[in-house]
Amino acid sequence: MSDTDAVPFLLRGPGKPFPPPEYAQMRRRDGLARAVLPSGTPVWLVTRHEDVRAALTDPRISSDPTHDGFPRPAKTVGVPSAQEVPGWFVALDPPEHDRFRKALIPEFTVRRIRELRPAIQAIVDASVDAMLAKGNSADLVEDFALSVPSLVISMLLGVPAVDRDFFEAKTKVLVTISASDEERAKASEHLLRYVNRLIMLRTKRPGDDLLSRLIANGVLSVEELSGVAMLLLIAGHETTANNIALGAVTLLTNPEWIGDDRVVEELLRLHSVADIVALRVAVEDVEIGGQLIKAGEGIVPLVAAANHDENQFGCPAHFDPSRSARQHVAFGYGVHQCLGQNLVRVEMELAYKTLFARVPGLRLGVPVEELPFKYDGVLYGLHALPVRW
Ligand code: HEM
């Protein structure tokens, strides 16, 4: 395949369904397709479910952006290296990656998250209270979908709720492709300075939170902890918010499924907001789906393409919570598979149960076609979601 066949890397666009229809053509044709980043650098897009899983588990394929050829949609977009930001472990390969993962796993087990359910429920209830206090209409993104994960991650890390606006604004810059490299670098610097202060505070006055426990067990340095805290703030916030908002639209347009516990997994598969999050580079020649990828070539395993692979999920565009969606790769796959997934599941479950029980007259404020979907972000989602009740 020659680079003259290459398609743009970001195939989303106004008026187009998501995932973009080109993904289905690529899956049918060769599975892997050549694309170009805005910088002009060619990359491989991986679209089939089995190939995405193969790419995400092959030790010859790296997550480390310091390797030549690592795909950067923009120079600094969401992928600093662990050299630039110590503790940014999503950008480390094993064995360096293992130390971080081991230190953090106890904080995100099913059991630990179950213990947090009452606190998460209280946050969801408070967010619904605040939304209802607005009268009979609101923006479900701003007033609910963003507020729940933002307050939850703040609680986990021990971030004072009053600082929420600050870190929300900074995260937004970091996940907007159209933001300039300068804007992004500045946002990242401010956020890092903020978490440094927070760590100093927790070192002096420990609380019952993740950061205080990590400081006490001493496995990670203060510098590394700052990167970890920043990664958690960014990773756990807009991702979940976009899922909650898109899922609310799907449930409002498929109300027969409201209240069914199986919706969460299917919504994660269907919306696959982190489509272009798992960026990789081959560090040796490797064959994926019958295609030779040469050392130094960038790879983008598209999780939305994999989650809509008709060989894995029949009628993939159809919302069907009764199907078995468990094999989806919305959280990635392999050693970097999302650390926060147990938390996300509980947040989504409680968010929908509470929202639809407490606001039974909830409906869309504008037709679905008029909703402002996000095409320019690293994550797919909604800029706003006008609702009434
Ligand atoms: C990794 C998706 C929410 C923390 C990932 C990856 C994906 C993902 C696709 C893999 C990245 C890669 O392979 O390079 C999502 C989605 C979410 C979500 C769709 C919401 C619906 C969260 C939350 C947290 C979190 C709530 C934390 C509280 C992380 C971390 C990693 C990660 C720390 C890196 C793990 C590692 O490198 O070992 N996530 N995520 N995520 N996620 Fe999530």
From TrEMBL:
Organism: Krasilnikovia cinnamomea
Family to which the UniProt record says this protein belongs: Belongs to the cytochrome P450 family.
PANTHER family hit by this protein: CYTOCHROME P450 YJIB-RELATED, P450, PUTATIVE (EUROFUNG)-RELATED
Chain intervals for the UniProt region annotation (Disordered): 59-78
GO function terms (MF aspect): heme binding; iron ion binding; monooxygenase activity; oxidoreductase activity, acting on paired donors, with incorporation or reduction of molecular oxygen
Keyword Heme attached: yes
SUPFAM superfamilies: Cytochrome P450
Protein's recorded name: Cytochrome P450 monooxygenase
Keyword terms: Heme, Iron, Metal-binding, Monooxygenase, Oxidoreductase
InterPro entries: Cyt_P450, Cyt_P450_B, Cyt_P450_CS, Cyt_P450_sf
PROSITE patterns attached to this UniProt entry: CYTOCHROME_P450 (PS00086)
Alphabetized Pfam families for the sequence: p450 (PF00067)
Listed GO biological process terms: antibiotic biosynthetic process
Protein's UniProt keywords contain Iron: yes
